[in-house]
Amino acid sequence: MTGPDEPRRSGLRDPQRAVRGLGAGTLALEALVLLLAIQPIRVVGGDLSGGAIGAVVALAVAAILIAGMMRRPWAWHAGTVLQGLLLLSGLLHWSLFALGVIFALVWAYAVHVRRVILG
Name one Pfam family in it (predicted). Predict the structure, then answer.
């Protein structure tokens, strides 16, 4: 048992690494889903402009770059900004807003897990 002055132990060998992996995995999954969603959105969702496709590709590239930078202290903030940009891309097409809501919730959960594990 730990006393009130002792830090809580998560049971993980390297909590920092586990949390970085969670953030990187979340962003990598987001990038993959964004890239794979382009064609179904075009076919089913209707008019997806070239600008919207460019925005999706740019967001996916940014997600991959941020996933690779998760060791940097600012990467979690950049990931949060990325979620906001994805939500804003909903102005280009409604389905991008839906993806933005889903990934914002997933990112919020990852940030919550980070706070619980690292304190």
Answer: DUF4233
Q: Tell me the CA end-to-end span of the chain in Å, nearest whole number.
A: 18
Closest CA to 67 of 9, 27, 112, 10: 27
Ordered DSSP codes for 46-106: ----HHHHHHHHHHHHHHHHHHHTTTSTTHHHHHHHHHHHHHHGGGT-HHHHHHHHHHHHH
One-letter amino acid for residue 80 of the chain? T
Q: What pTM, to 2 d.p., does this model score?
A: 0.86
pLDDT, tens digit, 9 for 90 and up, residues 75-91: 999 999 999 999 999 99
